[in-house]
Structure formats: structure tokens, C-alpha cells
Specification:
The complex is a heterotetramer, with two copies of chain A and two copies of chain B. By secondary structure, chain A is α/β, with parallel strands linked by helices. Chain A has six helices and 16 strands. Chain B has one domain: TIM Barrel (Alpha-Beta Barrel), CATH 3.20.20.70. Chain B is about 30% helix and about 20% strand. An eight-stranded parallel beta sheet of chain B has the order 9-8-7-4-3-16-15-10. The N and C termini of chain B lie far apart (about 55 Å). The chains are: A alpha/beta, B alpha/beta. Chains A and D meet through loops of A and loops of D. Bound molecules: flavin-adenine dinucleotide (2 copies), flavin mononucleotide (2 copies) and FE2/S2 (inorganic) cluster (FES) (2 copies).
């Protein structure tokens, strides 16, 4: 059962002129959230903006004793709500409904985990990396952004023992180009017998490329899709993804309840 | 305090109904709200057959509103009866089934099938969906079409029937009259306004279906006016909706003439809105010493204040 | 960059016109904006006689919109010509006179008088004001009435005439067609939506005239859809409006099919909006390498994305 | 020519749970404002609320050298915009258009000035009292509110030598009842030969009573009326007041440009 918290803003850390991390006091949501789940956030009072927006749970915040106290969001401003979240002040209250959606299925050792993140698609991987670490799963993060200054929280992942493979579009850090290129190279190099689970989150084009590449090498791939969501609870049917069923038929599934994490090989990419 | 209302033969414990298409099949919300606490649940519009609807993007936010063109994705009436109705029944929900066809015969067939199902309280005839190519709104935009669908369904069912009117017409009251003459127990209004949003950067529509239906607070003043007009035109009850976001808005529709109201878009913004609505109505009744909420229906006081005058 | 557009024989230096009733007689804003810089000014609706309009309250804010029932308070056409037109002329404003009558003869008489006046660029025929008892919108809600007013005015004036259409109809495109057939040079749309707000504490309407006209961003998606529909239906230019609040919104109307646009409610929110609109359009043209703004009119790309499909 | 300032909030002083004084940096508006003029304020970003709201200029703020730096508003929260103004934080920017409207006509000695304020209707009298003081005019403020805690800035007026006649509805300070009662008593006591100008601002009922009382004693009365205003510039015709013209005719005048200060004896009270 999701909780609607009038979450107090605890802190707002700007990361760049576009990105920030917003810490929210929401213990019940924090306690229930699994890696890959999201919250529906209502930015601003009144009717402008009107609808909530979906955000991945980025970090689960904890007190000294390890008890969950809240969550943070990794926010990239692209419009009205993300702009308000970028500017939110400590003390403000923001309605936050969650946790919602189907989380990642966390693999066990000896399966390796390869996470593929594009831009703000990094968000669900902080908690996933922690869960993988807890299970002793060997993990790699393929992480691409526009430029070096937009590759965030690298030390956090390093601290968890996650191997980092970085790319930037301008070549300012890591390999120049798209993040799926090193993924593909690594897949080609990997023995087919060694089990690997691929997790992907990022722009649609990147997801399609990651899922297609994984399928080509016969690897399972869990992708976290991004659709415009009206409700987050299965009520509006706005967030559909076109998928293949077993018999070659196509159907629309609601990514807010059947996802956001979906099997990459069943999605029909446009 | 008495919150109960009647819509013809249908007795509701309170006047707040979940609007069709905005509350799934009801079961999606069983975790969030006690379904029995609602006046009723108008489930997502059903066709005879399953439908996949339009491709994403299906919605876009607009100023104080939203545009949608879901295209009536749905599981079809038979799967609904087998997969959803039992749970709704078990949870003691008052189920209003919203039905949609492309021909009069389809509406009749749907009504027949649902009349035999256990746990259906009423039928809402969706003759006003702006998002499909045939049927639906074409009936709702023609007085004859409205009359034909309603009277044909009337012949095959004893369930209360509520044609759902479109606001995309010149004179909505005449449609309420046609529905009344054809034997409707009540009318629901309004469905969404046909509308469009263009992305100026790509010069393409923001939703895949090009046009869609506008809902939410933006449309409320128009919807209230239409309820008020229909209240003058017909004797059957009116179920009012369009942009209700709090108890004040619900009361506004009732004072304008609605015997009950539906809440759609606001449930997306706040799925925990239902107890807040009941509470707000109770507060209002207490403050104004109103014992029965049904007593405020249609009580808007429009005595002219000397309206137009010319300087001398 | 070329911002000029044509509305029939009327050449405008840019596509941004101040909407009628939202810019007084123009002279009120001479301190705030260079009147000559505007594409045009549609002055407040004029009757033959002076009118005092409705008592206050005349407006109420609604979600992302406002409801008004001013009741066409105005100084009448003769005082307008003597007291306002000379200053407008002196300031080199392009003046579009919005006229309103209760009979066809009154429109004809107004058109005659204004055709003889110096400094009138065009006539906008207000057959769509929802706030007066006779005339106005009754013509606008009848195809015959629309045709009759336009063709009668056509006979007596050489000025460009723009009937202003109401959105309170089932099929706005048919009204655009009637106007075109009757000889209109262009059509303006939309006027306001008939709407109502009730104060639930007093159970009285919030404005003295009970119902009024809804304008502002709330209505924009409906207005854009109507412009798009009319663009398919007629060859004459369309002047689009309804909720434009920035350059993006103006461009949206043009891409949907408007040769020029009007801005009403947004001028109340920000009377310094005009240079911002011009600047925003210029930025857009630069970004998209568009040399003539007229080239974007009606260029919305609605190629179907495979729309409806059924699961197999 | 009015100025539209993106005025920074300098300070927000709460006076009670309903009232506050908001100080705004707006030197050009401050320099031009005359007593009784108003500004149109846009609270919040976006379309909710949509329209600006009218507020009297309460104080003209000045730097050490006396140069105008901004204005303050005396705000009473009754709805969405006044609520946002109540909560505004220093550093925020609020669009503020003004100065607008016809100010009070300031009398000269030996005419006495009697100001009559109801509740938040006090707002225009701070600057008026200063202007009267500068001209050496003997001034009295009749000031009524619901209770003692809602009678504000008394020391300010005392400091300007203004005589205070206070009333409260609950009798907690000054006379119990309405503010027009002592006004009427004072008018009855005053010699008809001694010139007096009455200024009134407050709820419509109080204005009607003050204007009618003044007329009964043949005293001029300038009232500042309050109408819902769409634009503040004469563009929308929403703010009309019904007035009598010289020949017994009635007409609607726009209170934003013909007022807000209007001759009380010409207004038709409903
Ligand atoms: C499950 C899920 C998890 C998400 N997690 C995060 C996250 O952790 N951090 C983060 O910054 N963002 C995340 N997003 C994306 C985020 O929801 C959107 O950026 C946000 O809704 C934009 O809101 P806005 O009001 O700022 O933009 P708007 O003003 O509503 O829109 C601005 C522009 O962006 C487009 N747009 C709006 N929403 C989306 C969308 N969902 N996808 C693509 N384009 C869109 C609009 O069409 C418009 O052109 C997630 C989305 C989903 C579905
Ligand atoms: C010239 C002038 C000067 C003013 N000066 C001040 C001032 O210095 N300080 C101050 O606090 N207020 C002042 N007011 C009143 C102020 O403009 C309103 O309180 C404000 O517009 C309310 O906005 P809102 O968004 O909070 O209320 P809303 O949410 O818009 O409305 C709340 C309720 O109040 C009613 N209402 C709204 N505006 C008015 C109004 N103008 N008169 C009566 N009822 C209204 C509405 O109908 C509604 O019922 C002044 C008004 C005028 C015309
Ligand atoms: C996403 C969405 C889907 C809808 N689907 C249906 C539907 O299937 N059948 C129907 O009669 N109305 C449908 N409607 C219309 C609503 O039931 C309601 O009439 C309208 O949204 C106005 O109410 P609101 O402003 O409270 O949402 C839908 C509305 C939305 C927003
Ligand atoms: C206060 C007000 C007065 C109006 N008066 C007139 C009028 O006199 N004649 C007319 O044709 N339209 C009138 N309109 C309609 C506007 O010109 C315009 O069609 C409508 O407001 C939609 O545009 P907007 O959303 O930009 O305001 C008026 C609108 C408002 C808000
Ligand atoms: S977001 Fe509403 S159904 Fe998925
Ligand atoms: S407020 Fe618009 S005319 Fe006075």
C-alpha cells in the first residue's frame, strides 16, 4: 500500500545548473522502497503544475542507527515541476506518494550485475548497487552523460566496489560517445557461460540499444522505462508500453504497475 | 448528517462517485481507499471486445487541466465480468459500468450482458468519448443518435441508465431532454472537451491521437454552467462532473443542480482525496446547519440583480 | 526576419493583435506600450449607443482562467470616433473595430458609420459575446444568423470584415464556412466559453450576470483544436486566440492554422507582454531558421502514427 | 507611466495569524507613489493564481539619506494570493506594477483631516498621514477593527501627531462597536464653520456609512473603494463603481483609473 507523505525538504544539494539532489523526510516510504521503485511527486501548491511527476527513489536516507528517515531524488530540470524541485527550499513540504511500481529483480552471486545508466537514468542504481553489494554480487556501472561535470556520485559507487565504465558525449571523461558501445564490447568479450544480468535506465534510445544488444548476446535485460504518467497507480492508462506476449501478439501494459522495470526483450521499440 | 442521495431508483450512501476512466476498474485502488466508502464507482469505459487503445504519449498536462486520448484501452465486457466484478462485489462497491459501442446494437448487447451480471448497480452510456473514430461521440453530438441509443438500451435493461453527455455541443440541455424522453434515469455530464496541444519545437501534436479530451479544474466553470442549464431543462437527476478537486467544487455542482458528482482527474493528483471530500462536505453541512445533503441540490439563487441599465 | 503577415487585404507588421475587450480602446495603454508596435488593436466591443453594462462583480478568477460578464459597457460608436480614434490615428495604431448589435440592421449601420471614419483598418463582427441578452451570440450560434450578418455587412463596406466566432457550438468549422461563403475576409476565433462560478457559502453566482465568458490559459487547448478544425474547412485566414500567454502559445496557434493571433487575458496579467512576445517569436525563428513567420502557418504535422490496433 | 518591478522581498513581518507587512525593493515605484495609490501584485509563478491583485502602497521605504528604496504592503490573508503574500520569503521576487490610480487629494491647513479606517483599510493612511504632517495639517485617525490585536501601527500614527480614535467590535480596545459611531459624534460636535476633509478606506458597508454620514453633515469625503480588479489600468472594465453624474444620471466608472479614491457623495451604494 503506497503512502502519501507531506514530506519536508531536509536539504537541497545542487550538482550543476540542471541537476540537484533533494532530500525529503519520508520514513515510511523510505522503509518500504525497493531498488527501481518510484514516487509520484506534486511540486508546487495549487493547479500549476496540476499533476504529479514520477521520480525514482535515488537514495534511502538513514539515521545514525540505520533506521530509514527519508529518501532523496536525483532531479534534472526539464520543465515546470523539475524546475520547482530544483529550487525547493528546506522546510517546504512536498507531497510524495510511494513507493510505487515493480522494482528490479536483484540477482545473486555468481551472476554478475551490469548496470547501464544514461544521464539522470543513474537514479535507480544507487539503491540497486547497495542491494547487490549486500548480496556480494560483482557489479559494473556503465554510465554515460553529456560531459564530465554531469557524471555524478562516482565515489559513492566506487565505495561500494562497483566497477565504473564511463562515457561522455564530448569525451571530457571516459570514452567519447554512447554508453552502449563499451557495453557491447564487454558483452562480446565475456564468456557466454558466465551469467550476467543487465539493468538499464536512461533515455528511450539508449534503452532500446541496450535491450537489443543484450538480446543479441542472449543476455537478460531489465529496463526501467520512462513514460509520461498521470497517476502512477494504474488508474489512467497513460503510461503504456507496447509489449509482445508469448504468442506473437502485441499489447499495451501500464508501466506504472507492470513496470517501470520490464523485460527488455519483450518491449516493442518504436 | 445524512449524505445519502438518490439517482432515480439508485440509492447512494453519499454523492461522490469515482469518474469513469480515472479509477481503472476500481480494483487498482482497493489498497488506497475503502471502495465501499464511495457513493459509487464508474469503471473504465468498456467495449464488447478487448481494445489496445492509442500508442503513447496519451496524455499531456495543460493549464489547470490535462488532455487525454487513451483510446478506450480495455479488457472487454466479458473479461470484466469474470476478472474484476467478483472482487468489486466482494468489496461491496456500488458499480456503475460505463459502456461504449460503435453501433446502437453494440450498446444493446453490452446492456444485455451486463443486466445478467451480478453486482452491476447502473449503466453509464458513454456516447461522448472524443477519442475514438466511430460511435461514441457521434451519437452524443446528435439528438437523434442520443435518443436512439438510450431508447434501445431502455428496452433491454431494468438497470438504471445514465447517458453521459458531451460538452462539445451548442445546447447541452436539448441532449438532456432527448435522453429524458428516451427513458434515461439520469444524465451524467460532462465528458471531456475536444482539444489539442502542439509541440512548437517539433510542430507535432503532443499526443499520438492528435486531438484528445480536456479534463480537470480548467473546465469546471463550463461544466457547472452546463449542469445548471440541464437542471432547468429536465426532471431526471443529473450527475455532474468536470474539474472537481475538493469538497467546495463538489458542492458547487450540487448547488448548480447535480444530485451526485463524479471526480476524475483529481484522483490522479491525490488518490487519497475521497475521505477529504466526505469530510469537507460534512464540515460544510455543519457550518450551514444542513441535515440532508440532498437538500442543497439545485438551490443556486440566481435572482437577477437589476442587470442591465442605460445611462440617462 | 520577416514578422509581417496578411489577413486578406490587411497587411500587419507582425501577427500579434490586442484582443477586443482586453485592451480598452487602446489609448489606456499608450503609456505602457508603443501602440504602433502592435500588429493591430481590436478595440473594446462597440454598440451604436452608449451602454453601462452589468453591475459589479463582473469578473471572477477560475483555475488558469477568468470569467467575465462586463455586459459590453461602452461609449458607443459615435463617441468612439470623436474621442478615441483621433488619438489612435495619431499614434499610428492599426485599429480593428469590434462591433456588436442586436439586429442585422445595427451591424449594417455600425459598418456604414465606421467605413466613413478615418483610421479604421478592419471590422471584427462580434457575433459571439455570451454576456448580453439579445443579438451577439444568438447570431453566432446559428449558421443562418452568421451568414446573414456577414453578408449584410459585406454589402455596405469595403473594409476587411472578420466575424468573430463563438466556441459554444458543436461544429465551429461549419460557422467558419458560413462566414466564408457570406464574404468574410477572415474569421476570428475563439470568443469566450459560456461558464458559471457559484459561491457555495452564499449559493449565489460569483458574478452579477449569473453566467459569463471564460478566457485565459484554461481554454487554450480547446481553442487550438478549433483553429485547427477551421483551417481544414476554409481558405480565408484565421485569427486565432484563447489563452495565449507567451510566444510559445502564439506560435502554437499559428502552427495550428492561425495567420495572426490575439492576446486578451494575458495583457491583464502582464501589460508589458508585447515586446516579450515579439522577442520570443524572433528567438524561435532564429533557432529554427525561419525567415518569414507566415511560413509556419498551418504547418502542424499530424501524420498518423499507426493509431488504433487490436491485440492478437 | 507605471513601472513593473520584479521586486525582491526584503522582509516579511507577521503582525498576526492573518496580517503581515511585506517590504519590497522597488525604488522607482516608491519614488513615484502618492498617498492612496496602489500596485498590482502577481503572487506565485505560473497560472495559479492567474491574475494580479491590487494592494495599497502602505509605506514608502527609504535609505539613510531619505531616498526611496521600496514600498511595503499591509496584507490581510483572505484567499490564494494574500496567502502567498503572507508566506513570502525574503529573496523571492514578486512582480509589482505601479503606482496606479488616482491618489487622495491632500488638504492644506487650516482644514483638518479625519481619516476613517476599517481593518486592512488602514493601508493607504500611513503615507497620507505623512503627507498631511508635512503640510502641518491637524489629523485624526478613526480606526476600527475586530479586536485590539488587529489594531496595528498605532505608534507610527502617534509619532506623526495623529490623534487616534479607536474602536473594536469586541470592545477589547477603544470604544466597542463600529468606527463610524465616533465619527458621527465628532461631526455633530464640530462647528460647521471649521473646515474638515474626511478620508475613508475599509469595507464597503463602512465606506457607505462614512460617506452618508459625511454628506449628512455637509462634509466632503474622499473614499477609497475596493473592487475586484482584473488589470488596474482601465483595460478590462471589471472594477466599476456606480456613480451619479451632475444631471441625476447614473454611470459606471472604472475605479482603477477614475479611483480608487472617489468623491463619496457621488457613489451609489447598493
Ligand atoms: C518511473 C520514472 C522515474 C523517473 N525518475 C526520474 C528521476 O529520478 N529524476 C528525474 O529527474 N526524472 C525522472 N523521471 C522523469 C521525470 O518524471 C520527468 O522529467 C518529469 O515528469 C518532467 O516534469 P516537468 O514538469 O519538469 O516537465 P514538463 O513541464 O511536464 O515537460 C517538459 C517537457 O518534457 C516532456 N516530458 C515530460 N515528462 C516526460 C517524461 N516522463 N519523459 C519524457 N519526456 C517528458 C514534456 O512533453 C515536455 O516537452 C522519471 C520518469 C519515470 C516515468
Ligand atoms: C485599490 C485596492 C487596494 C487594496 N489594498 C489592499 C491592501 O493594502 N491590503 C490588503 O490586504 N488588501 C487590499 N485590497 C484587497 C485585495 O486586493 C484582496 O484582498 C485580494 O485581491 C484578494 O486576493 P486573494 O487571491 O487572496 O483572494 P481570492 O482567492 O481571489 O478570493 C478570496 C475571496 O475574497 C473575495 N475577494 C477577492 N478580491 C476581493 C476584493 N478586492 N474585494 C472583496 N472581496 C474580494 C473573492 O470573491 C473570494 O470570495 C485592495 C483592493 C483594492 C481594490
Ligand atoms: C484519462 C481519462 C480517461 C477517461 N476515460 C473515460 C471513459 O472511459 N469513459 C467515460 O465516460 N469518460 C472517461 N473520461 C472522462 C471522465 O470520466 C470525466 O467525464 C472527465 O474527465 C471530467 O471530469 P474530471 O475533470 O473530474 O476528470 C476519462 C477522463 C480521463 C482524464
Ligand atoms: C474582460 C473581457 C472583455 C471582453 N470583451 C470582448 C468584446 O467586447 N468583444 C469581443 O469580441 N470579445 C471580447 N472578449 C473576448 C476576448 O477578445 C477573447 O476572445 C477571449 O478573451 C479569449 O482570449 P484570451 O484567452 O486571450 O483572453 C472579452 C474578454 C474579456 C476577458
Ligand atoms: S500512470 Fe496512470 S496508469 Fe500508469
Ligand atoms: S481593473 Fe481593469 S478596468 Fe479597472
Amino acid at each position: 500500500m503506497p503512502i502519501d507523505a507531506a514530506a519536508e525538504v531536509i536539504a537541497n544539494h545542487p550538482l550543476s545548473t540542471d541537476y540537484n539532489v533533494l532530500a525529503l523526510a519520508a520514513p515510511a516510504i523510505a522503509a518500504a522502497a525497493a531498488p527501481g521503485q518510484f514516487v509520484m511527486v506534486k511540486a508546487g501548491a495549487g493547479h500549476d503544475p496540476l499533476l504529479r511527476r514520477p521520480f525514482s527513489v535515488f537514495e534511502v536516507l538513514r539515521d545514525e542507527r540505520g533506521a530509514p528517515t527519508g529518501i532523496s531524488l536525483l532531479n534534472k530540470r526539464i520543465g515546470v515541476s523539475t524546475d520547482l524541485i530544483y529550487k525547493a527550499q528546506p522546510g517546504e513540504r512536498i507531497a510524495c506518494l510511494g513507493p510505487l511500481g515493480r522494482p528490479f529483480t536483484v540477482v545473486d552471486s555468481p551472476t554478475e550485475a551490469w548496470m547501464v545508466a544514461g544521464g539522470v537514468g543513474l537514479a535507480p542504481f544507487a539503491t540497486l548497487a547497495e542491494a547487490l553489494r549486500a548480496r556480494g554480487v560483482r557489479s559494473t556501472l556503465f554510465y554515460g552523460a553529456r560531459r564530465a561535470q554531469e557524471l555524478f556520485h562516482l565515489d559513492f559507487f566506487r565505495g561500494l566496489g562497483v566497477e565504473l565504465v564511463l562515457t561522455t558525449e564530448d569525451g571530457s571523461l571516459g570514452e567519447r560517445g554512447r554508453v552502449v558501445t563499451p557495453l557491447e564490447r564487454r558483452l562480446a568479450a565475456q564468456s557466454a557461460a558466465a551469467p550476467v544480468m543487465i539493468y538499464a535506465c536512461g533515455p528511450e534510445g539508449m534503452l532500446a540499444a541496450a535491450a537489443t544488444t543484450a538480446a543479441r548476446f542472449d543476455r537478460p535485460c531489465q529496463v526501467s522505462v520512462e513514460r509520461i504518467m498521470g497517476c502512477g497507480l494504474g488508474g489512467c492508462y497513460s503510461c503504456v508500453v507496447r509489449m509482445r506476449n508469448g504468442h506473437g501478439g502485441l499489447h499495451h501494459v501500464r508501466s506504472c504497475i507492470a513496470g517501470p522495470v520490464l523485460p527488455g526483450n519483450q518491449i516493442v521499440w518504436d | 448528517m445524512d449524505l445519502s442521495v438518490r439517482i432515480g431508483s439508485l440509492a447512494l450512501k453519499n454523492p461522490i462517485i469515482a469518474a469513469s476512466g480515472c479509477f481503472g476498474y476500481g480494483v487498482e485502488y482497493a489498497d488506497v481507499v475503502d471502495l465501499e466508502s464511495l457513493g459509487g464507482i464508474a469503471v473504465k469505459g468498456l467495449f464488447l471486445a478487448e481494445r489496445e487503445g492509442h500508442p503513447a504519449p496519451r496524455i499531456v498536462e495543460t493549464p489547470a487541466g490535462m488532455l487525454n486520448a487513451i483510446g478506450l484501452q480495455g479488457i472487454g465486457v466479458r473479461r470484466f465480468i469474470h476478472e474484476k466484478l467478483p472482487e468489486l462485489r466482494a468489496r461491496k462497491a456500488i458499480v456503475i459500468v460505463n459502456i461504449c459501442g460503435t453501433t446502437v446494437d453494440e450498446y444493446v448487447e453490452l446492456a444485455r450482458i451486463l443486466s445478467d451480471a451480478e453486482g452491476v448497480a447502473a449503466l453509464e452510456l458513454n456516447i461522448s468519448c472524443p477519442n475514438i473514430k466511430e460511435g461514441g461521440i457521434t451519437f452524443g453530438c446528435s439528438l437523434r443518435g442520443t435518443f436512439d441509443v438510450v431508447s434501445a438500451v431502455r428496452k433491454v435493461t431494468g438497470l438504471p441508465i445514465l447517458p453521459k453527455l458531451t460538452p462539445n455541443v451548442t445546447d447541452v440541455a436539448s441532449f438532456a431532454r432527448a435522453a429524458e424522453e428516451a427513458g434515461a434515469d439520469a444524465v451524467s455530464l460532462v465528458n471531456t472537451f475536444l482539444a489539442m496541444v502542439i509541440d512548437v519545437e517539433t510542430r507535432r501534436p503532443k499526443i499520438s491521437n492528435v486531438v484528445g479530451g480536456l479534463s480537470g479544474p480548467a473546465i469546471r466553470p463550463i461544466a457547472v454552467r452546463m449542469v445548471y442549464e440541464c437542471r432547468q431543462a429536465v426532471k431526471i437527476p443529473i450527475v455532474g462532473m468536470g474539474g472537481i478537486a475538493n469538497a467546495r467544487d463538489a458542492l458547487e455542482f450540487m448547488i448548480a443542480g447535480a444530485a451526485a458528482v463524479q471526480v476524475g482527474t483529481a484522483n490522479f493528483v491525490d488518490p487519497f482525496i475521497w475521505p477529504k471530500l466526505f469530510g469537507g462536505i460534512r464540515d460544510y453541512m455543519q457550518r450551514h446547519q444542513i441535515a440532508r445533503i440532498a437538500d442543497i441540490v439545485g438551490t443556486v439563487d440566481t435572482r437577477a440583480r437589476d442587470n442591465e441599465w442605460i445611462s440617462s
